[in-house]
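Kindly go through the following sequence and its backbone structure tokens. Advise at your convenience whether the structure tokens fit the sequence:

___
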Amino acid sequence: MTTIRQLFALIVATGLTLSTQAHAALPPGDKAPDFTLPASLAGHGFSFSLKEALKKGPVVLYFYPAAFTPGCTIEAHDFAEAMDQFHDLNATVIGVSMDQLDTLKKFSVSECRSRFAVAADESGSVSRLYDARLSSGVHAARVSYVITPDDRILMSYENRSPDEHVAQALMALQKWKAGSSRH
């Protein structure tokens, strides 16, 4: 039986990707653009505000091409499995794609396992602000950010493979927390 990871590896290996990668991600130290988007957590719609989320602690903002595709499903599962670690670091996780909210309501339950929210950037305006839009203009690129409560980008990680996004975000948060506790 072929697993999702095996299928994704086959797609990447054969070059059947969604499109070419976006421009370089916003660099660490830059001010994170503020946004509010319709989102879903456990199938329930709400309005996600970056500004409001940052009042509670750091935010892991990850962009992904499309719900229910092999790589995006892998990434959602990985984030869902790591949510206890993100909670321990007082971090909010939000996934963003250019899918419709109705699609994300289903994705938030099945693939995100009701553990974190996903937001609908149907116009691609937020993806554009974060240099996370594929040249096709139809999908977001696979780019992850960690944003500190002072609205600054702590980490940006861009890679078509979903495999390291969770680890990179956790490592950046752990280093930030260690540095913050020394001050």
Strands lie at 36-41, 44-49, 59-63, 92-97, 117-120, 143-147, 153-158. The chain has one domain: 31-178. The chain is about 35% helix and 20% strand. The two ends are 52 Å apart (CA to CA).
